[in-house]
Amino acid sequence: MDVTRAASVVAERARNGRLLVLTGAGISAECGIPTFRGKEGYWTRGSKVYHPMELATHRAFVEQPATVWGWYLYRRSVCRAASPGAGHRAVADMARLLGERFDLVTQNVDGLHARSGVPPERMYEIHGNIDAYRCARACTTRTYPVPERFDDWPKDRIPDAEDLAALACPACGGPGRPHVLWFDECYDEPRFRAESAMDAAARCDVLVVVGTSGATNLPMQIGALAVARKVPILDVNPEDGPFGDLARRSPGGGVLRAKAGEVLPGLSSAIAGAVGARRE
Ligand SMILES: [Zn+2]
Q: How many CB atoms lie under 10 A from the CB of residue 257?
């Protein structure tokens, strides 16, 4: 499918209906944020090299909280140093144009969608946000901003006892933990808005999937629900994957083998045209 055809599908559906955008690591990789599932995520402590899939677990946090915290504080610094790209800006434009008829489900924890202007009430960060922490004992589901003293955290630095004290739960004084969903944990509504994300999939009239490999469970459920509801799916991704299959199966949908920054501005322009036409 070419951009012109995709733009007309999105514009036609979003003119009076609801748009759901689902984003993954691809949109942020364009801004220099590595996925951390690959070699960029490897972490060295002493002679031991950790694989990212080992560190991003509750089990690793229980065994060595300081090592896991050090890895997340460094990753947070990488995210803070990045800026939203053309893809993020186009998604923020869509949110502004459509208001309550727009929803964003993102697997990214980097906060770039919020920084580009997507309002929090229209966005479901289903894997959490690296800029926040919460109580490791779950005395509350509240989240807190990671303090400024951790800005610009260098790679491979391990927080000391004083650092960890600054990351303690303000409510009970117990240890704090990064507000992210780990590989050995489950989605839920209070922390990760999983039900709200499925509700958005149950009411959307068009689904745009961006830079998502389909490796995680909830995004695939969202795609499957859209297919079952016969909603058009557009898959924006330089590489093919499970969402490409879903998009080809959806009526009116298709795949765009391109980067988010190359395609999404055209889609948001088409929406602007359609919404403007509706108002006239
Ligand atoms: Zn607590």
A: 13
